Amino acid sequence: MKRFFTLLSLSFATATAIQAAVFTTSGDGTTYSLAALANIENAGVTADGNVFTLSDTLVIADGDKFELDDNAVLKLANKATCIIYGDAGFEVSDATITRADDSAKPNQIELRKADAVVNFQNVTFEYVGVKTFEANTLCFDQCTFTKYVYQNRVSGPIAAGMTGSSLIVTNCLFDQNEYSSISGAANFKFAKVLVEGCTFNKSQQVNRNMPMINLTPGDSIIVRGNVLHGDSAKNMVGGISVANLMGLSGDMYVLIEDNVIDSCRYGINIQGAISEAIIRGNKVTNNRFVLNNDANNGGSGIAIYDASQSMNLKVSNNYFENNLWGITVMGGGNINLGKIEVDGVALAEDDLEYNVGRNVFKDNGQDDILVDLAFAPGTDYLTVYAQNNTWNVEEQTEEQIEAVIDHQKDDATLGLAIYMPAFVDNPVGVSAIESVQPSGSTFDLMGRSVEPSIKNQLYIKDGRKFIVR
Length: 469
Fold this sequence. Notes:
The chain is mostly beta strands. 7% of the residues lie in helices and 41% in strands. It contains four helices and 48 strands. The protein is elongated and about 80 Å long. The model is unreliable at 1-20 and 427-439 (pLDDT under 50).
């Protein structure tokens, strides 16, 4: 009993010490800036000009508000964190949130007010991330997240952990973070996600089997107009994944559109029961890394898997080049890679089953064996329309196309592809993708001539990449 009492006393003393290092605001409706907090005794915030250091845990109480100071640098000490139960504003012309020194491992910014809308604009996060613990909405525009380090069981710089959360992430740069840059827990359903106009540069540095964008389904998931560059030294890192691993129910919509995905283990993974999914207009190249030296474990431009056989998916106007596989089908429901006619009868364009196809395949395969479309064993229940596409053959004939598709005609355990008629004219997508960029002009990473006006975005001029700051 004496020993138990001693341990209990020690625990109480430790808890008291930890609690003493937490500063909580009054909750009386006050708005706090870093400058204001630095003038409050025991708040844990010190100031040196516009550089502020948070030494421990700062709690903004429900009823109060935190506003980030413009042009501030906020340094977080080891294990320091800011927990916000009230309102918050992180809209500035410029600010940086980083670690206090090279040895510090701060915790993330935690947002704990349900139904709140929190805006972040022009903030650079170094070694620090943001996590929501409630069903709220986080909006990030023109922010940078770099060199985030796993801390306190939060693996990525933007993480959501509650059903009903929404993320709006636009025009942001994610550079060399440890794990997935944007992620959600597998057991909850997003309300809305929009990831648009962002650049992901080698942004999964621990080389784990996870993608740079790692999302669960939601009422609306849109991943559009982003550029993802992998790292050839990290052969386990995927590009974009939207996966319903826990069998979540309800209507779910996914749109993956106009992205450039290069040098990852796979380009796009779509998995599980999803009501409606559309993958279109993406450029998917050089995704050819594998797990355990097994080509069956990676390298797909698009990987499709749904054991529930209920996914509705349309794939169109994508460009696949130099992937280990073009498209792999490991299970699904209504998978449509192009459907313009049935039994020789043309479908009207307003028919719900109509899909223009127009996917282009070039040099996907290994060891001089080209594979544009492949089915996994056990998919014999599937019939997949894949019409009006341009296959990697000299002539778009049934005989030649058959050589680049692994399906039921090769093995009775595989799904059946209906791929004729193919698209026979010179596809606009190929000439546009392979066009030569004139010197002196500036282009985005999709090859479009643009004015370099978006902060934290990657551009190309005269063959060199640069970022607007």
